[in-house]
Design goal:
By secondary structure, this protein is α/β, with parallel strands linked by helices. The protein has a single domain, classed as NAD(P)-binding Rossmann-like Domain (Rossmann fold). About 40% of the residues lie in helices and about 15% in strands. Bound molecules: NADP nicotinamide-adenine-dinucleotide phosphate (NAP). The site of NADP nicotinamide-adenine-dinucleotide phosphate has 27 residues, from helix 1, helix 3 and strand 4.
Length: about 280
C-alpha cells in the first residue's frame, strides 16, 4: 500500500511517516520543497504519476496569529491547496485524509463538540482550515476529516517544550486557565489516522484529539509535576495575554476513544523525550 504524505517535514508529518514506515507502507514523502500544494498542475501530475492508494494531507499554514494579517496565504495553502489535493485524488479514485482543527468551532458550547456540530471559526486560521474541510467534502467523497487540537510532538516547537524551557529559566509563570481543550500527541494522532484507514472506517469527520480535557494552566501544571520542575505557576485569564487571533474558550471535542487520555499520552511523550536526550 502506497501513501502520499504532504507536510512530511512538519511536526505531525514526521511522526506520521515514521508510523506508516514501521507498519510497512510504501511512502511518497512530500513537502513544500518538492510539492507545493498550491500548484494545481504539480499536484495533479504527482498524484496521477505516483498513483498512491491514499493521500494523507498534513501540510498546512499553521501560524495562527500570523494568519490574521496574512489571510490570503492562509486561504491559499489551507483552502486552495486542500482543494487541489482532494480533487486530484478524486480524479484518480484515491481517498484523502485531511487534518483539521478544533478552531473550526467558536468555543461557546458547554459540552464536548461532536463531529456534526455547527462550525463557526473565530479566527482566520480556523476559517481557512474550514475552507479546506469544505473543499475536501465537495471534491472527494472518500475522505477522512480528522480534527485535532493542542498538538505537540518531538519534531516541532510546541507547548510542552516551551514549558520545560521556561521551567528551567524562570521562578514563576502565569498560564491561561480560561481556555480548555484536548492536548494531543502527534504519535497518538498518527495512530488514530492509521486505525481509520486500516479498519476501513466509514468516510466522514472524526475528532482525533487526546481523551479528557484541561486548560493550558492545567496542562502546564501536569508537565511541571511529571518533570519534577519547581516553579510558582499561577493561573490567569486570556485578557492578560492579548494575541492577534481570538482563541475559542471551550474546544473540548468528543474523540470517541480514538486517542488515549491526554495525561497518559503526555507521560509517553516525556519518557520518550528522556530516552532521546540520554542516548
Ligand atoms: N499544531 C497544532 O497545535 C495543530 C492543532 C490543530 C490542527 N493542526 C493541524 O495539524 C496539521 C499538522 O500540523 P503541524 O503542527 O505538524 O504543522 P507544521 O509543523 O507547521 O507542518 C506543516 C508542514 O506543511 C508545510 N507546508 C506549508 N505550506 C506548504 C505548501 N504550500 N505546500 C506543501 N507543504 C507546505 C510546512 O513547510 P514550512 O515549515 O516550510 O512552511 C510544514 O513542513 C496541520 O493540518 C494543522 O493545521 C495543528
Amino acid at each position: 500500500m502506497k501513501v502520499l504524505l504532504t507536510g512530511a517535514n512538519g511536526m505531525l508529518g514526521q511522526d506520521m511517516a515514521k508510523l506508516f514506515r514501521e507498519k510497512g507502507y510504501e511512502l511518497i514523502l512530500t513537502d513544500i520543497h518538492n510539492l507545493d500544494i498550491t500548484d494545481k498542475n504539480a499536484v495533479a501530475a504527482t498524484i496521477s504519476k505516483d498513483k498512491p492508494n491514499i493521500v494523507v494531507h498534513c501540510a498546512a499554514y499553521t501560524n495562527v496569529d500570523g494568519a490574521e494579517s496574512d489571510k490570503a496565504t492562509a486561504f491559499k495553502i489551507n483552502g486552495t491547496g486542500s482543494e487541489n489535493l482532494s480533487s486530484a485524488a478524486a480524479e484518480n479514485n484515491i481517498p484523502i485524509v485531511y487534518i483539521s482543527t478544533d478552531y473550526v468551532f467558536d468555543g461557546t458550547k458547554n459540552s464536548p463538540y461532536q463531529p456534526n456540530d455547527k462550525v463557526a471559526p473565530i479566527n482566520v486560521y480556523g476559517d481557512s482550515k474550514l475552507a479546506g474541510e469544505i473543499a475536501v467534502k465537495k471534491h472527494n467523497p472518500s475522505h477522512y476529516i480528522c480534527r485535532t487540537s493542542w498538538l505537540y510532538g518531538h519534531q516541532g516547537k510546541n507547548f510542552v517544550e516551551t514549558m520545560i524551557q521556561l521551567g528551567s529559566s524562570k521562578d514563576e509563570l502565569k498560564v491561561v486557565d480560561d481556555q480548555v481543550g484536548c492536548p494531543t500527541w502527534t504519535v497518538d494522532l498518527a495512530k488514530a489516522v492509521l486505525y481509520l484507514i486500516e479498519n476501513k472506517m466509514q468516510y466522514g469527520v472524526y475528532h482525533t484529539c487526546g481523551g479528557g480535557s484541561t486548560s493550558w494552566y492545567g496542562f502546564a501544571k501536569k508537565i511541571f509535576e511529571l518533570e519534577k520542575i519547581n516553579i510558582n505557576l499561577m493561573p490567569c485569564n486570556t485578557d492578560e495575554f492579548p494575541r492577534p487571533a481570538n482563541r475559542p474558550r471551550y474546544s473540548i471535542m468528543d474523540n470517541q476513544n480514538l486517542c488515549r487520555d491526554w495525561v497518559k499520552a503526555l507521560e509517553g511523550y516525556l519518557s520518550l523525550r528522556k530516552e532521546v536526550i540520554t542516548t
